[in-house]
């Protein structure tokens, strides 16, 4: 087990009827707030109204920024920064899923930075100062509600990049599973795949002796496999939505990655290149790519970890690690298929036109991946396998 | 899943050679520090010297309080409070295991309270203000390094009581597994039992739909079952010590209790009555009492949870929950025995002399337990079974 520092200080307020508790926490930081959201599902669900009512009752000042899209755009980030500066706002409250939260993190750091916020993503500047932010989560998927990471797309350059800093971790996050009842089948399935992918990225590493982390990772995967199908059939099943929601936060708050040198993250970086061009739902892209990444990196050295996963999560028996590993990858692909997720890029109308440039862009900062290092040709090969 | 609030904000600094990083964090809070420790193992291991050297290098002022015993005494707490007040100290740094940390928490709150610190434990006052505190952990057991709970013994009244508050959560905890290499077999085994007991107290509740929490709980138990025996045979096995150390923190930082009304905690309260009189090692007391508590509360209604545990942790198969439950309790007792822990009170020279008064004292605030409510007669009965 490697040395590590771990502090996941986000205050989680979980459950029904918690808006007033959320606002009480927000007001500990500032009474001048930017509320950010997306296309209006938070209007339909009544969440925005409840938040505004609570803020009005406490005499707080707020501005709104709506229209933040999935794969959030740098243009929205710049708009949010402008509103914060013009109105001297001191807290950003994101209502939505990972896209709204990620864009809000970029705003929070961008307000205190004089240059272009894209600099953070190009690694030209560190987002090491930020306004405090919080969220009311409406989609169980990205884990952004309990970590300091942010992924944003540059609409001009067709790039989708990630950055992060501990100061971007939300101070408080409200997780009310009832606000995910209206999430449709496609997004629910993609969210489940996203949660599982975050576990995979931290599970598949060569570090020895991380038994407790890997055990926790497996238990989160089992939760996804149990409840993912339930919410597709029974979208208002509170227990299922609640388990998936808490799974989303625990899968990417740093817990399962403790004691490891780093995560792998190659598949995420490849998927970002695909969805930067095609605006594909992130989880759907991961459902396509992950099994092919697994096939590509499977060898005598890596089989042990796939075999562990297969035995502990899918109950696959056997004595040959490589055989169990292959059966495990099949089981993962079958599970994603059972959620009606696509299993090839052609199924979502993506041709091989940009595969070469996607491979190059994925490796723009050098080879990617930690479980197995991948150069741009290998990335292109994985994309071809996934065609 | 019940509504919950969760914030485990302790900064964990895990691994080898981290003393300077610990001291850097401490000095963010205050440069006037009380160092607390026990009988001197931190002198032998060199930890105390390293801490003092780091403090001296940074020009910090410190005082020391040594001699804090297992089942820490109120008298030590009062001494610590006096030193803090006389020297205007602003941070308490505990070097040791749960006893030193728990006593230090009582000091931290006591410094800012005008009355007797025992009031906190008698529920006459809430320990809701405290000096910041931190620790360098030397024993994997109580989980005190990442939570706001404290257990102290009153030397005058032979009472051992618990209290807690979020403000008592250490700001920073250094977990260096190498400092547990010298922990002897008895204490190592008792520590493993203690960690498992914390999981049991939160696992055995009647709350439905807490699948993710229970899965994480099971993975922590499996870690204990795997590595507990290893450290008895091979005390300097870093991976085993590291997994147990991280298990101790995760078992009682609130994580596995989220979404539940509360934990059970009856067995801990019974054990506190035994060790208040007999000064028994806490984990050894739990190893004796837990299997009897399990036998006592097992019935048609509670069998499902024992059966889940048996299937998922001990791989016990079958179709009848009650049968699996019985086999599970046997497996737990066998595991504790394999660690050379006692399995009856007579084995540690405790007679039935005080059983009745122990039962009454355990229920002094009313019936105990949540999985099954126990009155004082039931507690006495469990003690008789454990004789």
From TrEMBL, chains A, B:
GO terms for cellular component: cytosol. It comes from the Bacteria. Pfam families: ADH_Fe_C, Fe-ADH. GO terms for molecular function: alcohol dehydrogenase (NADP+) activity; butanol dehydrogenase (NAD+) activity; metal ion binding; methylglyoxal reductase (NADPH) (acetol producing) activity. The keyword Cytoplasm does not apply. Keywords: Oxidoreductase. Residues 10-177 form the Alcohol dehydrogenase iron-type/glycerol dehydrogenase GldA domain. Residues 189-386 form the Fe-containing alcohol dehydrogenase-like C-terminal domain. The keyword Signal does not apply. SUPFAM superfamilies: Dehydroquinate synthase-like. Belongs to the iron-containing alcohol dehydrogenase family. This is Iron-containing alcohol dehydrogenase. It comes from Plebeiibacterium marinum. The lineage of its organism: Bacteria, Pseudomonadati, Bacteroidota, Bacteroidia, Marinilabiliales.
């Amino acid at each position: 087990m490697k040395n590590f520092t771990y502090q996941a200080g986000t205050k989680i307020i979980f459950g029904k009827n918690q808006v007033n508790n959320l606002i009480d926490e927000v007001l500990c930081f500032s009474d001048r707030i930017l509320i950010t959201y997306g296309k209006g599902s938070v209007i339909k669900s009544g969440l925005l109204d409840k938040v505004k009512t609570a803020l009005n009752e406490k005499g707080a000042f707020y501005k709104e920024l709506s229209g933040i899209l999935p794969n959030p755009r740098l243009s929205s980030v710049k708009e949010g920064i402008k509103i914060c500066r013009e109105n001297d706002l001191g807290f950003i409250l994101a209502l939505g899923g990972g896209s709204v939260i990620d864009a809000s993190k970029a705003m929070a750091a961008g307000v205190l930075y004089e240059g272009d916020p894209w600099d953070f993503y190009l690694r030209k500047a560190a987002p090491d100062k930020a306004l405090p932010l919080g969220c009311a989560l409406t989609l169980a998927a990205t884990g952004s509600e309990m970590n300091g990471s942010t992924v944003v797309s540059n609409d001009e350059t067709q790039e989708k990049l990630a950055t992060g800093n501990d100061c971007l971790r939300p101070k408080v996050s409200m997780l009310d599973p009832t606000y995910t009842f209206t999430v449709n089948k496609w997004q629910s399935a993609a969210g489940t795949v996203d949660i599982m992918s975050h576990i995979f990225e931290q599970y598949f590493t060569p570090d020895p002796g991380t038994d407790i982390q890997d055990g926790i990772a497996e238990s989160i995967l089992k939760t996804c496999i149990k409840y993912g199908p339930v919410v597709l059939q029974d979208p208002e099943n509170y227990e299922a939505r609640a388990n998936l929601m808490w799974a989303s936060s625990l899968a990417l708050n740093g817990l399962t990655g403790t004691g490891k040198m780093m995560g792998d993250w190659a598949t995420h970086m490849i998927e970002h290149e695909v969805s930067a061009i095609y605006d594909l739902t992130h989880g759907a892209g991961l459902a396509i790519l992950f099994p092919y990444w697994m096939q590509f990196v499977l060898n005598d050295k890596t089989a042990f970890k796939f075999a562990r996963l297969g035995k502990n999560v899918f109950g696959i028996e056997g004595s040959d690690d490589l055989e169990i590993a292959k059966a495990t990858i099949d089981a993962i692909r079958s599970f994603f298929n059972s959620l009606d997720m696509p299993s090839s890029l052609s199924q979502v109308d993506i041709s091989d036109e940009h595969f070469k440039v996607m491979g190059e862009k994925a490796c723009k900062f050098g080879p990617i991946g930690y479980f197995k290092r991948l150069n741009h040709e290998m990335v292109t090969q994985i994309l071809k396998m996934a065609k």
